[in-house]
Amino acid sequence: MTTVVLDPDAAASAKGEAEERARTQRNFGWQLLWRALLEQKTALVLGVAIGVTWTAAKVAVPQLTKAAIDQGIERNGPLLSWSLFIAAAGLATGLLTAGRRYLAFRESRWTETLLRERMFAHIQRLHVGYHDRAQTGQLMSRASSDLQQVQQFVVMIPITLSNVAQLGAVTVILAFTDWRLALVSLAPLPLINVASRRFSTRIHPVVLAVQNEQAQLASVVEESVSGVRVVKGLGTESVQFNKLRKEADDIRQVSLKAASIRSRFLPAIDLLPSLGLIAVLGYGGHRVVNGDLSIGDLVAFNVYLTMLVWPLRNIGMMVALGQRAAAALVRVDEVLSTEPAVQSPERPRSLPTRNSGSAVGAIAFEDVTFGYGEDHAILRNFSLTISPGESVALVGATGAGKSTVVRLLLRFYDVVNGRVTLDGIDLRRLDVHDLRRNVGVVFEDTFLFNDSVRNNIAFAKPDADQATVEHAARLAGAHDFILQLPNGYDTQIGERGFSLSGGQRQRVAIARAIVADPRVLVLDDATSAVDPSKEHEIREAMRTVMEGRTTIVIAHRPGTIALADRIVLIDEGRVVAVGQHRELLDTCERYREVLAAWAVRDDDAEVK
Fold first, then answer.
1. Per-residue DSSP letter, 304
2. Side by side, which strands form the sheet with 439-442?
3. Domains of the chain, with CATH numbers?
4. pTM score, two decimals?
5. CA distance 29 to 174
6. 507 contacts 442 by C-beta, under 8 angstroms
7. Counting Cβ atoms within 10 Å, is residue 399 exposed (0-12), middle (13-18) or buried (19+)?
8. Beta pairing class for 550-554 and 520-524
9. Using one digit for the tens of pLDDT, what is the confidence trace for 174-206?
10. pLDDT tens-digit map of 142-179
């Protein structure tokens, strides 16, 4: 049995470091929140002006009530006039409340929209390597529930500023009315500041934990819904349910902890003004009996103290909402502060135009080395040249580096050593969007959007006319089956296009690439998900699209490989053989082994 001896000094140091990190994180969150608010300072100033006017009307009511009692009742004065003044002040308060609320909600939604648009645009700019590691549910949580926390805080700012102004005005009025009674009634209130600071310190890490757990729950839900066919196919609904139940229980536990902290703070907000009321009734009543204070002043004092309850409670709510918003912005900034590893240069070069008279679409991999991790290289001194208009098939075993070649060509990643060029220009010298508009890809895992067939085909060029869309569909061999759909090109194909067969999805994806009209086309195992008996339909579409266009075909079926002008065998990240299909079958043993292994897999899949 091993005995572990804990060093008290080390434990204390670790605790201190953790507290310091939490304090730094909390302060950073508030800084982010402040910067977000500065972007709408004009509206906030207007909100303050409305709030001050609202405060003036609000605090006037007890003064008018006091005058009505002292002059209208005790001295038989014009009570009706004072009543009308009170009604007018009440009407003004109501109108200003409506204006203040509208402004608050307008600005809060504007802040939420601005942050959401900024975050969505940044997520789209981030490199593919980031998305390979990031959880979709986490990103969705930051773009939805975290930003809602910010919105809920911002909506309370004009209201809170009004309440703070009301708090200051009431304090001044009470002091001028009777400073002794004011001291007695307001004595418990400074304790609010102490309680607020303790509350802020304790609630922040708990609120952050709640939001982290909500993100974990969103990840489980997103994976379960997007992978529902796998879940149902394997009968593992209970497995996913148990995952969700665990995350839901975690949220419940940390939420209850947060509720416990709030339950100890908010009652103090209610109790402290009540202590002031008791003091007013006791000491103030004694002064009325002695003739030092009028009945109207005593009533006004009680009304004013009652008016302090909501502002003080509101301040407590704002502290909690502010902590949530600050914690949410820290999580949002974790995304926004991530710099894309792949970016366009400051002064990008332009690709030669297609009507320049020279052939376009030349590709060269020059002594390229690349790996997804520092210790594991996928491509090693990889060199390959593809002439304009040439079609090349990349063949190799799983993990040989075929798809990596495509990712480097699209600049999803940058090479570690060497370079990749398109029409003689290093990809790193090109604008990323310009590069990707000129390299069209039909991926193995075809992704179609929950939209009409027409919009999916015209995805790269939304303003394409119907004739262009239909021409692309005919070239891809998709036009006939599209016309047989319930609404033709306007048919909604459902999430990820699962209402279509695998071959139909591939043909729509090929049509989408045709509309984009790239100078280089990449067919990344475009027939792998298609039944071998239907493969010829896709091959014919591919043959038409490839004609006269630089094309890279990643394939393992002989019929698809035969479409290419040249075959390149890749093994362990290197080019090991180049030639025609029949030539490689006769001369390259490794080529025969790779095709045989893929044939066995296809046979197994067909049997299943």
1. H
2. 439-442, 520-524, 550-554, 391-395, 566-571, 574-579
3. 27-336 (1.20.1560.10), 363-607 (3.40.50.300)
4. 0.68
5. 37
6. no
7. exposed
8. parallel
9. 788 777 877 877 777 777 666 766 776 777 678
10. 777 788 788 888 887 777 877 788 888 888 887 887 77
